[in-house]
Amino acid sequence: MVTRLSTIILLIILLAVNSLAAGEGGYRSPFALGMGARQLGMGGATAAGINGSGSIYWNPAGLAEVKRSELQLSHMTLFMDTRYEFIAAAYPTLSFGAFGFGIGDLSSGEFERIDNWVSNNTTFSSRQDMLLLGYGFSLFRSLDIGLAVKGIYYDIAGYKDTGFGFDLGLIYSLGIMDGMSIGLKASDIAGPRIKLHTLEQRYPWSLRGGLAYSRELGEKNSLLLNADIENTEKLGIDIYVGAEFGLNEMFFARAGYMADKPTVGAGVVVAGIRFDYAFASLSDLETSHRLSLSYSFGVSVDVKRARRDEILVRAQIDEYRNNEEIEYQNKLQEELAEAHRLEQDGQTYQAIEAYYRVLGIDVQNEEAIGKVTLLMDQIKQNLAREASQGYTTQLITSQLDLGDSYLSNKQYDNAEGQFKLALILDPDNQHARDQLAAIENARKQDLSLIRTRAQTHMRNGDYELALESLNNILQAEPNDRQALDSQARIFKIVESSEYLDEALKYFDQSEYNRAIALVDSALALNPDSDGARSLKRQLNRYTAEETTLEDIKTNDAHWQIYLRGMEKYQAGEYNEAIGLWQTLLEFYPNNPNLSRNIDQATERVIKE
């Protein structure tokens, strides 16, 4: 039986662990120590500037920004042989946010058991575990929301209990400044209740809000600033601030202020593996060293989404072509069925015309070729047996008249069939030969008109009508190289437009690096896209390295262009000045002097 003294010792252990975050004797969750050396090094300020697997503890909304699967291990040594271990994992999906998992273990060494103020040569220990299951997703373009469900387990000197609670969080990216976001986390809503022997306690709720600002310094350096304010039930308000400087995307230095004590830390990232270290004072209970190791693996969800979108576009193109092939085959089968019916009904001439229509769809159709030859031979044999020369002449004249009628109505396939029948009966008939040549010329003219119409539709951006015209050409000339090239060009333009639309979405969200990748894809497919080129120029103004007039001076030819622009401006020729300065923007896209000059000249043009 544990005596009063043993119970007092246990309470001292609990209060000491809880006071690590409080700084005074107020009660907090023993897991308020957090997880991850990176966050501790920044003073625990993580409400808005957090992502990765550690988000499941600090703010589950940060899970929505996880791009690659990640596993993180964290270790912290405390006083009196007490250890704090944490493992977390995150898995992002393509369309349904990201899932997180975490386990924390806070356990002590062995304590001597005292019965009736005398040691009985036995020991006991304490252990507190936390299980977290989290989910984060993007509700709108700039708003991330997350939920973490937690389970708590206590085992202290044989006294055991469990409890459950949950955390809610959100992170919103502000549009007023690139890289700035705000975050909010509500912890231990309906917090876990734990009862040990006669002592019962509930985890206090807390509400934390934060502001984060991140900025790229050059191509590979970065700066992250975080500040949080937290109100905990019955304990009041605490302030957390932190900063992180990244060098060459590999080395990181951190400093922060955590409620009432300073913290420092450092980290290094190599091949997706991040090692972090942090140091902090534990009020009056010595110091704390925290280590964490995280590994990001797999393909980024951004790359997966781009691949998925490309597959979808390809599938749409394949579906379009398959539908065309199905329509083509259906038309061919309909004409063959009609030819068979006419042949079975003894309508030989009409059957021959129908087989010629089949050949108009598929010039190499073996069945139609064989049937035309067979039926023509039958006609010849019948004519040889039954028809006189006068009847043959009358039949040829009738066929020629019918062919002329078809031709005048632009029914070229029917007309062609009649004139070919006439040539079978009279191979030297010049009228039939001339009319067949006229049909060929008419078809070429029609194809030329259709080709011109397709080009007009393409210039006007009416790609659906252009594809319809191109399909008409390819039905007549399946191997027409110009039509095939134009068709492929339209497919690329459509695919390029989809990339451009996606880039504009990221541009509106101020995610310029993602937007640039999509714009480059759009330009690769359609280098003539004015919209893509325009957006690329705008993106360059945000992402290119900032330049000054001194940079322009280093290039004598560029400096002369700039000076001529100044001369035009002073002479009141504002449009000419704008044109000269805009040519320099191609080389100095992020030059405040050039942008200011162009804006001033534009204002003068508007006033005039």
Give a verbal description of the structure.
The chain has helices at 4-22, 37-41, 55-58, 301-344, 348-361, 366-386, 389-408, 412-425, 430-459, 463-476, 481-508, 512-525, 530-543, 549-553, 556-570, 574-585, 592-607; strands at residues 69-77, 83-92, 98-107, 111-115, 118-124, 126-138, 143-156, 159-173, 180-189, 193-196, 199-202, 206-217, 221-232, 236-247, 251-258, 261-270, 273-281, 287-297. The chain is an alpha+beta fold and 608 residues long.
Describe the secondary structure blueprint for this structure.
Blueprint: H1 4-22, H2 37-41, H3 55-58, E1 69-77, E2 83-92, E3 98-107, E4 111-115, E5 118-124, E6 126-138, E7 143-156, E8 159-173, E9 180-189, E10 193-196, E11 199-202, E12 206-217, E13 221-232, E14 236-247, E15 251-258, E16 261-270, E17 273-281, E18 287-297, H4 301-344, H5 348-361, H6 366-386, H7 389-408, H8 412-425, H9 430-459, H10 463-476, H11 481-508, H12 512-525, H13 530-543, H14 549-553, H15 556-570, H16 574-585, H17 592-607
Antiparallel strand pairs: 1-2, 1-18, 2-3, 3-6, 4-5, 6-7, 7-8, 8-9, 9-12, 10-11, 12-13, 13-14, 14-15, 15-16, 16-17, 17-18
Helix pairs in contact: 4-5, 5-6, 5-8, 7-8, 7-9, 8-9, 9-10, 10-11, 11-12, 12-13, 15-16, 16-17
